[in-house]
Amino acid sequence: MPDDAGRPRFFWKPHSTKFKSLLADLGAGASLSVLLVPAGMAYSLAAGLPAVAGLYASITALLAYGALGPSKVLILGPDSSLAPLIAAAVLPLAAGDPRRAVSLAGLLSLLVGAILILGFLLRMGFLGNLLSKPIRTGYLAGIALVIAVNQLPGLLGLEHPSAASGVWGQLTTTLIHLGQGDTNLAAALISAFVLVLLVVTSRSSPRWRMLGVLGSVAGSMLAGFLLHLEGTVPMVGTLPGGGPAPALDRLGTAEITALAGPAAGIALLAFADTAVLSRTLALRQGSPVEGGREMLALGAANAAAGLFGGFPVSASTSRTPVAIHAGARSRLAGVFSALLLLAFMQLEPEATRYLPSNVLSAVVVVAASSIIDIKDMLALFRSSRTEAALMMATFVGVVIVGVLTGVVIAVGLSLAVFVLKAITPYRTELVAVEGVPGFHDVTRHPDGRRTPGLVIVRFDAPLFFANGQVFVDHVRSLVDQSAVPIRCVIVAAEAITGIDSTAVEQLVELDEELQSKGIEFWFAELKGPIKDKLQRFGPETRLGQARHYPTLESAIDAWRQGPGLG
After folding, report:
1. What phi and psi, each to the nearest 5 degrees, are found at residue 129?
2. Dihedral pair phi/psi, residue 299, rounded to 5°
3. Beta strand 454-459 with 427-433: parallel, antiparallel or unpaired?
4. Cα separation, 107 vs 248, whole angstroms
5. In whole angstroms, what is the distance from residue 262 CA to residue 278 CA?
6. ∠346-349-355 over CA atoms, to 5°?
7. What is the pLDDT of residues 354-409, one digit of tens each?
8. What is the mean pLDDT of the chain?
9. N or C end of the chain: smaller count of CB under 10 Å?
C-alpha cells in the first residue's frame, strides 16, 4: 500500500529497529540450526533412540517455546543430563525394539509435559526463586568449564568420551589420547583457526559475531569439499530425511504407570536446569522472567516433542550461548533455526555432509566462555564471604558431581544459610545520637545517649520457634547489663514480619518475668497482622492489650510523660 507521497509502504522499514532485530534473529537462527544437527543426533543416541528423534525433539520444542516462552532468548532441546534418565526409563520397557522405544520416549515426554503444566496450574513456579545470584554466577562459570572439557576431544578430532565418566573422567581420557599422539592434526589446525576467528569477532558488535559464526561454518564446509577432507576429519554428515510425525503406538495404562515416576524426576530436573539458565540470562538482559510461565512453556515444549516423535527436553546450556553469541534478539531465533533445520531435512539433507564436526565444537566453546561473568564473581568476593562461598560451592558442585546435582546442593546450602540467619538474626539496642533525628544502632554509634530507665530493642527477623529464645536472651542481657535500673523495654518491631505460637508463648513468659521486676514491656511500629496474632494467641495476657504504639517516638513520649502509664 502506498503512503501519502505515493511511495511503497512496508510493514518493516529496512532501517527500523524491528527489521534489524528480525535480521539478527534470522542470522542467529541460521548459525544455531547448524549446531542443532550434531547435538540432537548425539543426545538421541545417548538416550538409546534413533538419531532422527533428537532432531524432531529440537524442532518441535523450539516451535512450542517460541509461541509460549517468556524468555527473550532461550534454546530448548535434547540435553546430555536427561539422556541417561530417558534411557534408564525407556530401554528396559522397549525390549530392544527401536520403534517401541520411540513410542515410550514420546509417552515419557508427554507425561513430563503434563506434570510441568500441572505445576504451573498449582503455581509452583516460585521454585525458580530459590536460585540466588551466587548460585547463578557459579552455575554459569561451572557450565562453561564443563562445556569446554566436553568439547575438547571434538576440537582435537578425537572420539568423545562417555559423559557418564564426568568432567574429570573426560579430561583424563582426552589427556591420555593426547599423550599417545592420537590427535587429528588437520582437525586441530582447523579448530585453532576457527577459535582465533571467533575470539576476534566476539570482541565486536553482534553483527560481526554472527558473521564470524556463519563464516566459520560456511568456510569450513567449503574447505571440506575442496580439500576432500571427508575421510581426514570427522564430519557432521548427511541429515536424515522426513519430518516430525506422531509415533505413539501400542501404549496403555501399564506403560503410563511404569513411566510416571521417571517422568516426575525428569520434570523436576528439566525445570531446575531451565529455571536457573532462564533467570540468569533474564537478569543479565534486564528482562525478568516469571517462573510459572517458564514452567508452562517448558511443559508445552515437552508435550509437543512427545506428540511428534521426540523425547523430553530442557534448556540447552551449550546452544543458548551460541544463539546469544550470534546476535539473537528474541525467541524468533529459535523458531528460525527450527524451520531452517526442517527445510534442510526436507530439501537439502546433504547440506552438512562436508561440515567438520570440530568446527561446531569451537563455536560451542567460544560461546560458552562468553557466559562467565568475571565482574559479578569479583563483586561477590568483595561484598560477602558467605555468598562467595555459595558461588564456589555451586561452581565446584556443577563441575564435580554434575550440573543438576550441583545446583540442588547449592540451593540446599542457600536454604541452610537462610535458616541460620533467621535463627540468629541481627539484633541490637537503639540510642539517640546528638544532632541526628531518630534512634540508631548502638554498635555503629557507641557514643549515643540512652534514656535512663529505658531500653530500646531491635530484632531484625520474624519471631518463630527457632529464634524466640534468642530474642528473649537478647532482652534479658540488655536489662541485666544496664548501669541503671530499667523500668521499660520498648521493642522497635518494624522488622518483625511474622510470629508463631511458640514465640508468643516465649513473649508471654518474658513479659511475666519483666512484670515481676516492675518493668513494662511495650511494642512500637508493630505490624497489624502481628498485633492480631498476639491478641488471638494471648488475649488474657498483657500482650493482647493496648500496649502497642504506632511509632517509636510516640512510645518514648508516652514513657517520658509518665513511666508505666503507657
Report:
1. -70, -10
2. -65, -45
3. antiparallel
4. 7
5. 24
6. 145
7. 888 888 788 878 877 877 888 889 999 999 898 999 999 989 988 888 766 777 78
8. 84
9. N
pLDDT tens per residue, range 465-483:
999 999 999 999 999 999 8
Task: Name which of 23, 18, 54, 20 is nearest 338 in CA terms.
Answer: 54
Note whether 82 and 312 are within 8 A (CB).
yes
DSSP 8-state secondary structure symbol assigned to residue 163: G
* Positive/negative CA dihedral, 213, 217, 218, 223: positive
H or E, element range at 506: helix 501-516
The owner of cell 538419531 is 51
Of 451, 454, 501, 495, nearest to 475 by C-alpha is 454
Q: How would DSSP label each residue in 266-317?
A: HHHHHHHHHHHHHHHHHHHHT----HHHHHHHHHHHHHHHHHTT----EE-T
Q: If we measure between CA atoms, which residue out of 85, 25, 32 comes closest to residue 313? A: 85
Cell numbers placing 439: 534512634
CA pair distance 238, 242, nearest whole angstrom: 13
Q: 427 has which bridge partners?
A: 459
User: What letter would DSSP give residue 428?
Assistant: E
Sign of the dihedral through C-alpha 239, 244, 249, 255: positive
**Strand, coil or helix: 112:** helix
pLDDT in tens, 151-198: 888 888 887 665 556 677 778 888 888 888 888 888 899 999 989 998
Query: What is the full DSSP assignment across 402-419?
Result: -HHHHHHHHHHHHHHHHH
Closest to 47 measured CA to CA, from 10, 94, 7: 94
Q: Residue 36 in contact with residue 277, Cβ under 8 Å?
A: no
Report whether 315 contacts 74 (CB < 8 A): yes
User: How much is the pLDDT for 11?
Assistant: 47
C-alpha cell at 320: 543458548
